Amino acid sequence: MNNTIDIKLPKDNVNDEFVRILSCPFNDGDEVKQNDILIEYETSKADVEYASENIGYIKYLCKSGDEIKPGETIIRLFQNIDDLKQSSMKVEKPTKINTSSKTRFSKKAEKLINEKKIPYTQFQNFSFVTSKDISSNLLDNNGFKDYDKSDQEKLNTENKDIFTEEISNTKKREIDNLRGVQSSNLTSVVAKSIHIENLNNWINTNSTALPQSVLPLIVFESSRLLKKYKYLNSYFSEDKIHFYQYVNIGFAIDLEKGLKSLTIYNADKKTYPRVETEIINLSEKYLEDELTKEDLTNSTFTISDLTSERSTFFIPLINKNQSAILGIGKTENQINLILSFDHRVVTGKYSQKFLNDLAERIEVYIKSDLKEIIICSKCLISLREESKLSGKGLIRIINSDGKIDFICINCLLGN
Amino acid sequence: MLQSEILTSLFQEAVKIRETEELFLKLFSEGKLNGTIHTCVGQEFNAIAVCNCLRDNDFVVSNHRCHGHYLAFKNDFSGLIAELMGKQNGICGGIGSSQHLFNKNFLSNGIQGGIVPIAAGISFAKKNESKDDIVAVFIGDGTFGSGTLYESLNLISLYNLPLLVICENNFYAQATPLREHLAGDIIYRVKSFAIETFQTDTWDLENLIVASDEAVSFVRNLRKPAFLLINTYRLNAHSKGDDNRDPKEIELYKQKDLINRYKISNPDEYNKMYQTAVNEIKDIASKLESLNTLDIENYITKNHKQNNIEWGKIEYTNQKISDRIYKFFNDYMKKDSKVIMIGEDVKYPYGGAFKISRDLSKLYPTQVIETPISESAITGFGIGLSLMGYHPFVEIMFGDFITLCMDQIINHAGKFYHQYNKQVKCPVVIRTPMGGRRGYGPTHSQSLEKFLIGIDNVKVIALNTLIDPYEIYETIYNEYDQPVIVIENKTDYNKLNSILELENYEITKSNEKYPTVKISPVNHKPDLTIVTYGGSVSLIKKVIDEIFYEHELFSEVFVISKLSPIEVDSIIESAVITKNLITLEEGKLEGGIGSEIISTIIEKVKVGLNIKRIAAEMVPIPSAAELENFVIPNEQKVISEISELIHE
């Protein structure tokens, strides 16, 4: 058997002891080329597609729904179709002992199968069938396919004005991600507006790079607030609420490379300049296709800023394994904070309180009279006083400690 | 009349022994001795008289008051003094000290009567191997309170062993006088076992010498047991300080004492002897003073840990468990004439209560010893044999009776290796069937293995139907290094060593010496880890199937063979993944095997686990079928308890 290639399940994520097979797109005996996606599996961090590095005739040593340990052989590529046919006659997995081909159904699975009238033969290759296997592999959460496929196909072939485009795997994954919380039909929204006339000034003066963006400030403040509003930093699963013990803010970004959520780890522990820097760095990585799996996963709360698109109001969708998402919209002199939340976890009142708290904090920046705060480092004259004198304002400098500071023209000229 | 040279040398020896005892008392009062001592002052001549008739290949077994016996037999003053001073070059590295001595052919231990069956075992070996060698065991009048002594006298006489039992009757068992602790008469007792008796006392030296010689010669030449009663008196307290005897009585015996009389009748010779003795002893003691105690690393042995566990295929024999055990004995008794089976009703044609020994006594008549109902003595007998290089397998008919062996297991077999500073191994094997489900009632249905775990240096192995018992016994035979208790299961005897018929589960065994069997669901991450052993394997199939069916949960089961010392390396990985750890045993809940397994795992694991011990109710096992089925965990009970854990 020199002409077979054994493909083992990669150890992508060292923490995973088991990985779930999502789909085996080919049939045994099909010919595959390089870059064909041979198998899709789900790790604790993300869904992974395995692209073939070789050509050959494929044979699967596992099936959808199986939970496999990384390192195990999952696919065999034969160079010779006859070798593949011969191998079917031998025991497939020499390391597996005492396996039987009889499928064992759980009580709930049996019930579902009888209710939905699914033929048992569909499971003949499964060793165990649970209710989860039925719901995730064959049907969506409602237990039915929600359209009659044959009708849709008819429509397509009859009407030549309809152009069909297959959705990408990324989109499929996006749908699957959003389906998670929204399918409960128990999400709701609260909103809050903040006037931000003076905020622009503050942002311009304090921010080092991001012009006019209110996102870093909101990331900064909401991450700290989430330590208090724990329920918004959690997720609902199987009648339990799971609280994250850390705050990782995911911010949405949708520039040329598709809609993604980038993670700022432990945002509540980072300084404002650091938050800004990370947003900038992550955005650059996004543009240059250099994002890692860590960048795209593990967020506990998401913020979606559509102020750049001048969206007045929108309802953001909550991501999988989260219980809330904060959208930012904009009207002329105000920003609109929109919080979608999972009603299985919190109420409108709780969510509104969060928004109110957040708004208050932001307003502090507005209300603080910057003119009092900014002073000349030498003569200590405040901006307000200076503006009464010469009105030329203060110059921003880097002082001998390397920090940002201000100096008035007089002191600069040595008067 | 004894010739004067002989007399002089006897007195010299006696004085030296006495002065050694006096040295110990002095060191003790100076705080240089740790512990207590039971001096034989006043009884020295007993030891000298008997031991002068013994030879180098004889064996002496003694009790807590053993200094005189040791010094008279081995003439090793330096070793004994070093031992009591706690030095590493003491006879037992300072570990055993006064009461626990071992030196090649001398053994002493501190449990009254416990040493006698061991002496019997040693003498059985001597009988097989020599025409001349004998064993001498020293007891006291107090020993006649111990049941094990009577069991042993019975055995000694039945098996016609070349063993001399010497009783030093000093009229007191610690603080209780003879008339208050012994009904009837010592000699009549012994005679009733058809053992030849001799009698003498300490104060007529000539008579003492002659009687000792007669007794020893009787045993040596006729190869039959004998009993020598020496009436004597100890001049000092039982140990230190506790002497409530009538001072007038003590004074009387002080005057009767031969050495004291010699002091008066032959003062010059006495003084010379005294000086010589004292100088020698002082010299030894002062040289020893500066020496070290034993390094603790040399005392505590760390258990060798198996690191890389690999799982592999199991070869099933598909034969009955009882057949496989019988086959082991048949094969190995043939190969090795030192494999001995000891038990009650083991002879052909009865062949043992559970028909394990069958016709072994017919095939190997010198290797099967059928015993009276004396669990304690037959265990000690096995221990004695194991000290002499034999492979004894002691069968205790029902596991419930293991309680009668506890002293021999805990205070003898388990201790010898360490307390004698690793000079001996005690590789005796005790096999016993535990378990209920036959309606035998409270005292014939128990699983008492929980009382056998955690004993120093004793291995406990439980057979199960998934691993060939032949393999287990072979490993035990080859290891030959420690006492081993093998827990067999009554209801498993007639079951086959065969696979568990389980759909879609993979069953493998570890490469450990005493393998663990792992039952895993194919291609599915397990949700529960279940650890069990022995007869409870019969419940597994239905339990894990039902847990899947009702709750959609996958169970991974570990069937361990070695219960003590417990090794959990093979189980930890699973426990960490599932975070649900369940133990299942037929024994009763509190202080059970499950408690030990769980504590050991939790100590090693960094994550929190949900745990559950499933075991029998804390009541005696009833005989009525429905009640027995409720008290001992049955499938329904196991399933419902696991369901409770899941729902929490």
Number of helices in the DSSP assignment of chain A: 13
**Superfamily at the CATH H level of the largest domain in chain A?**
Chloramphenicol acetyltransferase-like domain
Class by alpha and beta content of chain A: alpha+beta
Mean pLDDT of chain B, as a whole number?
94
Task: Give the assembly state of these chains.
Answer: heterodimer
The largest chain-to-chain contact, stated as pair and per-chain residue counts, equals: A-B, 24 and 22 residues
Structure summary, number of beta strands of chain A: 20
Strand content of chain A: 15-25%
Strand content range of chain B: 15-25%
* The level-1 CATH class of the largest domain in chain B: Alpha Beta
DSSP strand count of chain B: 22
Cα distance, first to last residue of chain B? Answer: 89 Å
CATH architecture of the largest domain in chain B: 3-Layer(aba) Sandwich
Number of helices of chain B: 23
Tally of discrete structural domains of chain B: 3
CATH superfamily of the largest domain in chain B: Thiamin diphosphate (ThDP)-binding fold, Pyr/PP domains
- What would the principal axes of the Cα set say about the shape of chain A? elongated
End-to-end Cα distance of chain A: 90 Å
CATH architecture of the largest domain in chain A: 2-Layer Sandwich
